[in-house]
Amino acid sequence: MSKQYLKELAADEELIQKEFEGLLQDYLNSNHRKKVDLITKAFNFAHAAHKGVKRRSGEPYILHPLAVARIVLNEIGLGSTSICSALLHDVVEDTDYTVEDIENIFGFKIAQIVDGLTKISGGVFGEKASEQAENFRKLLLTMSDDIRVILIKIADRLHNMRTLGSMPPAKQYKIAGETEYIYAPLAHRLGLFRIKTELENLSFKYDHPETYHEIEQKLEGEKKSLNKFYNEFSEPINEKLKSQGYEFELKERIKSVYSIWNKMSTRNIPFEEVYDILALRIIFESREGMDEKVQCWMIYSAITAIYKPHPERIRDWVSTPKANGYEALHVTVMTPGGRWVEIQIRSRRMHEIAERGLAAHWKYKSGQSDESELDKWLKTIKELLENPEPNAIDFIDTFKLNLFASEIFVFTPKGDIKTIAKNATALDFAFMLHSDIGYQSIAAKVNHKLVPLNTKLNSGDQVEILTSKKQTPQQEWLTYVTTAHARSKLQNYFKKEEKNLMSDGQQKVENVMTESNIAQSNENMQVILNFYNLSQRSDLYLQVGQGSINAEDIPVILKPKSQSVFSKILKPFVSSSGEKKEKNEKKEKSEEKTEIAEKKIDFKKTYKLNELNAGKSYELANCCRPIPGDDVLGYVTDQGMIQVHKRQCSLAAVIKSNFGNRIVNVEWGAHKAQTYVELLEVRGIDKVGILIEMLKVISEGYSVNIKKITIESDNGLFVGYFEVLVHDTEDLNNLISNLLLISEINSVHRVQYN
Question: Which fold has domain 12-209?
C-alpha cells in the first residue's frame, strides 16, 4: 500500500468517526432514552459491512447511513430503533448479510424495518415502471405495519437529494421528478413541512437550475429591505404580547424559492408581484389550565388591536386541524404602509407537530382513543392496500388521489363536522360516512336543497344523503367520485359483481355442454372462443353471465351434424378475423422490436437537438410545445424517437416518476433559422390607437411575424391574444419587456400549453 493511499484511508476514518460522534452528541442532547450502546453497535456493524465502498461523490459510503440517521433523529425526532435502522438500511441490499442476521444481532423490530426498507430500495421507480410501482405498494404495506419505514425512507431520499449534484443530468431529472411527484406530497401529508419544503426546493433546483438561481438572487437582493420591514412590523406585536405576560418566540418565515416560482407560474405574475414572501410566526408557551385554542384567539385579539385583519383570510386550523395533524390560527393583516402580511399563531406543541409531523403527533397523543385526521388517513391507505388495483401504475394513481387532496369541511344534518378532500362530491361523502350508505345512495340534500350525487361540495355545506335499499351501484358512478376511498369501494363492488356473473356464466356453459354430451376439452373451448373472437374463457363466462351470449347456441357451434347455414357462413368469417388479428399483433411486435433495436440510444450522452434529424430522431411534444430556451428533457418512445418536453410539463412529471429509465439529457443547439408559434396574453386599459402601438412594437421593433390576433374590450379594459412567430425564449422575453413599456399595458404573459 502506498503512503498516499494510507493517508487517504486515515483521513476517511477520521471523517467517519467525527460524523458518528456528531450523531451520538445529537442523540445525547435529545429527550430519548439513552441507548448509546445499541447505536454504537449498529454503527460498527454497518461500518464494517460497507468497508472500502465509496459513493459516486467519492466519499466513504458509511457517511450516507450516518447522515440519514442524523436526519431521522434531528429533523423527524425518532429514537434509537429508527436510528439503528437508518444506519443499517443498506446493509442487506448491498452486502452479504441477510435480514435473519440483522434479527439475530439487533432483534425483530429493527430487522422488520430494515427488511421493509430493503424491499423498496432503489427509489419508488427503477428500471421497469410496473415492477417499481409494485415496490411502492410494498412500501405502503410496510408503512401500514410500521410508519417508521416510510419516515426513514423520506430521510434517505432527503440526503440523496442533498447530494444529487454528483449524478448525471438524466438521472437528476428522474430522481428530482420522482421526489416532487411522490416524496414531497407524502412528506406534506405526514406533516413533515420543513422536509417537504426542502424536497420541493431541491427538485426545482435540479429541474430548473437557471430559474432557481435567478429567484434566489432576487430573494438575496430583497433581504435587507425584508429584514427592515420585519423589524418594524414585529416590534409592536412583541411589545403588546410581553405586556400581556406571554412567553413566546417570534420567527420570520421567508417563502421558499419553489413556492415563489409556483405562485409566479400558476398566477402568471412576475417576482415583484409576489407579495406574501414574508410571514410572521408566533410560537407561544401554553399557560397551564387554559385551552390552547382560547390562547390562540386571545393573541389574535391582541394583534388585531394593532393591525386591521383581512376578513376573508382567517384560517382556523385550531378548531378543526388539517388531515395531516397541522394546527394553527392564520390571520392576514394590513400594515400602515398598505401591505398584507400573514401571521401564524401556534403553541409550542402545535409548532413541533408542524415541524416534525407524525413523530411529534404521536408524542402528544393524550390517550389510546385519540384519533386524528392523520390516523383516519392511514386507515384509508390500509383499505386501499387490502384491495389494490391489478395494475400497479393504476394503483399509484389511485393512491395519489388520496395523497394530493386538500381538505374542505362539511356538516352532517346533526351538525357534526367532517373533513373531506377538496372537489369531493356528494357520493364521495356518502362513502366516507359508510360503504353501505354509498352503495344505496339515490340523491343528496346540500343546504336543504335536493341535488344529484355528482354535485361538488364546498366548505361549510350541510350534506344529507338519501338512500334506498333497492338501489345498487351503477358503472357511471366511477365518473362521479374523486376520492380514492370511494373509487376503491366501487371498484371492489364491481369486481365482486363481475366474479358472480362469471361464476353464473360458467355454470350455464358447463350445464349446456353436459346436457349435449359435449366434452369440456381445451380443443372444444378454443373452438367456442374463436367463434366469438374471444381470447380467454373468463371473457366467455362473463358475456354468458351478462346475457350478451346465449349458452344454448354453443352446441350448434360445436356439433358438425347440426351445423346451420348461419354457422357455416359465420364461422370462417369469425375465425379468419381472429387469425388476422393474431398475425397483425405478431407483425407489430416484431416490427417494434426491430425498430427499437435499430435506434440505439446512449442514455449517458447529452443530445444536441440541432444535430439530430427533426421528425425522425426527435419531436417536440404537442402537450407543452417547448421552444429553444425552455428547460427540457428527452423521453425515448417505444419506436426509439426522442420526445422533447418542457421540464415543468405535467406529462413530463409523470414520465420522470414512472419511466425514469427512458429519460435522456437534451440541449438546444443553434436554432435561429427556425421559428415557433407562441401565444401571448396582453391586458390593459383600452384607448384609441392602443392596438396600433402594440403592432408597432411587435412588427416594427422586433420584426416578429404575427400569425393571429384576438382582442376584446369591456368597460374600458381590453384583453388580447397574439400568436407570434419567435426563434426562442430570448426573443419572447424581449418582446414582453418592450410591450410592458407601453403605459396602458398592465400585464403580458406567455400562455403555457401545459
Answer: Hypothetical protein af1432 (1.10.3210)
Q: Are 344 and 369 in contact (CB under 8 A)?
A: no
Residues recognised as catalytic:
93-94
543-550: long-range pairs with CB below 8 Å, 24+: 543/505, 544/504, 544/505, 544/506, 544/508, 544/509, 545/500, 545/501, 545/502, 545/503, 545/504, 545/505, 545/506, 545/508, 546/501, 546/505
pLDDT of 21 higher than 80: yes
Chain-centre distance for alpha carbon 132: 16
CATH architecture type of domain 210-363: 2-Layer Sandwich (3.30)
Averaged pLDDT for residues 402-415: 71
C-alpha of 572 from chain center: 51
> If DSSP codes are grouped into helix, strand and coil, which group holds residue 558?
helix
> Which CATH superfamily groups domain 676-750?
ACT domain (3.30.70.260)
Q: Which amino acid is at 233?
A: F
**pLDDT tens for each residue of 471-508:** 889 888 988 998 878 888 898 888 888 888 899 999 98
**Mean pLDDT, residues 604-619 taken together:** 79
Q: Are 549 and 531 in contact (CB under 8 A)?
A: no
β-bridge mates for residue 406, sequence order: none
d(CA 357, CA 187): 9
| pTM score, whole prediction | 0.65
Q: Name the E strands within 378-496.
A: 407-411, 417-421, 441-446, 449-451, 463-467
Name the packing angle between helices 392-403 and 484-515 (round to 10°): 150
Strands 618-620 and 642-646: parallel
Helix (H) or strand (E) holding 439: helix 435-439
| Structural Rg of the chain based on CA atoms | 31
Q: Which of 193-202, 312-321, 550-559 has the highest mean pLDDT?
A: 193-202
Where along the chain do its domains lie?
A: 12-209, 210-363, 493-598, 606-666, 676-750
pLDDT tens digits for range 561-570? 434 444 444 4
Separation of CA 4 from chain center: 47
Residue 139 has a CB neighbour count (10 Å cut-off) of 19
Q: What angle do CA 289, 295, 299 make, to 5 degrees?
A: 150
Residue 370 CB partners (closer than 8 Å, separation 6+)? none
DSSP state of 469: T
Beta carbons within 8 Å of 327's beta carbon, 6+ residues apart: 317, 318, 321, 346, 350, 353, 354
Contacts of 374 (CB under 8 A, 6+ apart): 190, 191, 323, 324, 325, 358, 361
340 pLDDT band, cuts 50/70/90, is: confident
Residue 740 — left, alpha, or beta (φ > 0 → left; ψ -120 to 50 → alpha)? Answer: alpha
If we measure between CA atoms, which residue out of 30, 329, 402, 355 comes closest to residue 198?
355
- Does pLDDT of 149 surpass 50? yes
- The β-bridge partners of 333 are 309, 341
CA separation for the pair 299, 282 (Å, rounded): 9
Q: How many CB atoms lie within 10 A of CB 350?
A: 26
Three-class SS of 187-230: HHHCCCHHHHHHHHHHHHHHHCHHHHHHHHHHHHHHHHHHHHHH
- C-alpha span between 265 and 263 (Å, rounded): 5
